[in-house]
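name: query_chain
kind: protein
chains: 1
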Amino acid sequence: MKNLYKTIILIFVFTSFTTILFSQAKEIDVLYLKDGKVISGKIIEKIPDKTVVIETKEGVEFYDYVDINRVEKEYIPVIESVYPTSGIVGSVVTINGSFPSQPKNCKVFFGSQQVGIDAWRSDRITIKVPDVDEKTYSVAVQMGSQRDLAQNSFTVVSPVTQQVNTTPYSPSGQSTDEYNLGGFWFNFAYVTPNGEFGETSGQNAGFAKKGFGTGYEGRVHLSENLYLPLSFQFAYLGLNIEEMRNQSSSVLSSEDEAHYLMWFTLGLGVAINLSPSAYLFGSGDYGISLIHLPDLNYESSNVKLESADTFAPGFAYSFGLTFTDAVTFGAKYFSAKPKHKVTITNTGSFSSSSMEREFEQPTKVGVFYISFSLN
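structure:
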């Protein structure tokens, strides 16, 4: 049981640290020197009123305070896609990617021309095509001295050309390039045992009760409608010890009175647009689970059952509805068949003995959750 607690703590510390590190990696230290030079990197040491030590792409460099005009922390913009890639003057263009929550000191360029920003979010910028000639232009986002150029350019066409439908096909008639399917999500869940895992009679009855859970999901946007989900989920379900006592002739107790489940899964998901602010999604996943069964103590007969924490492969599928790329209501179903090793110890008055037994406990749970974007 102590090993399980340590495992849970380590996993949560690791995932929390990874999430924080992921968000911090988007920022960079910038030195603006009095001679006009701009130095970007990571400050590794500051000697007050003397020297700043900064690590750049070229190596470690030293600068005196008297030569520095100011020191800034700037966000590194990341453009993932531009949609659409062609249109007439005045048409709306969406730049998907990773940006700060507020457009402070931020500029968007259409070719060499700076354009106004119609809407700004941490994962999406909306602009309009300026009054320019009909040709191909680069699209860039600049934040302070940091600049990122979109891989795909934008072609300005005449109104006659625009009448030809160039929108990629998607099941809903809209392209999910309008959405950012990538990023981190954190969920809170209501968990229910399914099948034999929640039953209270039969050879494989699990006596599991309803519980709660929490988890992370990282998504990688693969293409128009597809994404790659990598999930970690933790679930706590109580033990229906009252029903076990009703069926036992011995005085029964349990130290933890709970089932603990953790699983890591990797899968493939698809999204279907419903409106400009909502989309349906579904995924199929496969991974590994860690399952803990509660220990039992039959006090009247001096028998104790201790179960080792068990790893087992399993599969899952999920579906749900996402609003404004920020909040999701969804459901997951997870199934595994772990083979638990149970140590049975008989501590009699004069002697004690123990033996090991192995049994399969089908473990199926339904997870109903609300998740929030950490992007």
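note: Residues 2-24 form the longest helix (23 residues).
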